Amino acid sequence: MSYQSIDYEVQDHIATIALNRPETLNALTNGMMAEIVDALKQVERNRDVRTLVLTGRGRGFCSGQDLKALGEKPAERDIAEHLDRYYHPLIKRLANLEKPTIAMVNGVAAGAGMSLALACDLRIAVVGVRFSQTFVRIGLVPDSGSSYFLPRLIGPARALEMAMTGMMVDDETALQWGLINRLVTDEQLQKETYDLARTLASGPPLALGMIKREMAYGASHGLDQVLEREKDFQVRAAQTADHQTAVEAFFAKKSPVFRGQ
Ligand code: T3D
Fold first, then answer.
1. In angstroms, what is the span from residue 172 Cα to ligand 1's centroid?
2. What family does this chain come from, according to its entry (predicted)?
3. Domains of the chain by range and CATH?
4. pTM of the complete model beyond 0.70
């Protein structure tokens, strides 16, 4: 599939999806969401890809739903169908991808555009970045997973304040609140992101996939269930060739080479 609204490339085991409608700050259209889902399927299928970077072209990361695409009578659209058909498959596929994901947040992230950043595992953002749950500003409520991810990430009080006011959260606040992992200059953004992506791409792929699932499970289950889940995953991890070779590498005082086996 050749893409109109995104760029997709793979280099050194790292896939990059770049939203590419900069004139709208990368607002989401149905076509763009279908393309992202298609690219995510490629990331899933391609064993050569070990890490995903999601970013935007131009000065924005993503401004959420393309408001122009809603037409003249937005209140009359079938929003449930729209969410079911486009947003939910995208967010689920991104959040459930069994490979590490990094949002390289190059600029403003608003509405479902912020949800996209939240659905990634890690966020590296540029100085000057802004985040907003703009939904309320247009009389809507958070969707695309924002009300799932946001309170878990920054706590219910801050999540509610963002959702109820649509306030803009600036770069330093985002870092202080734990909305982002790192805040870097424009010049450092690519290097910091891809250094981290390379670190993740050289890790044990099977264990990394399980770590994602373990942490998500841990966030919404009790201790007894979590201990059982950890045991299940640890049994699987311990049976991998990657575990065996990493222990051998430790005693040989060498760096392990993980093969995803
Ligand atoms: O069916 C469904 O609706 C379900 C799904 C809903 C999910 C949602 O995401 S709802 C929320 C939709 N998004 C928004 O409400 C955000 C709208 N945008 C903004 O509030 C602001 O643009 C930003 C805060 C993101 C950035 O502000 P600023 O001042 O840096 O930029 P700007 O001047 O507002 O925008 C620059 C251009 O991008 C501008 O076009 P122009 O005037 O230069 O031709 C603007 O119209 C365009 N743009 C920005 N956001 C969108 C957009 N065009 C279409 N859709 C957008 N979301």
1. 23
2. Belongs to the enoyl-CoA hydratase/isomerase family.
3. 6-201 (3.90.226.10), 205-251 (1.10.12)
4. yes
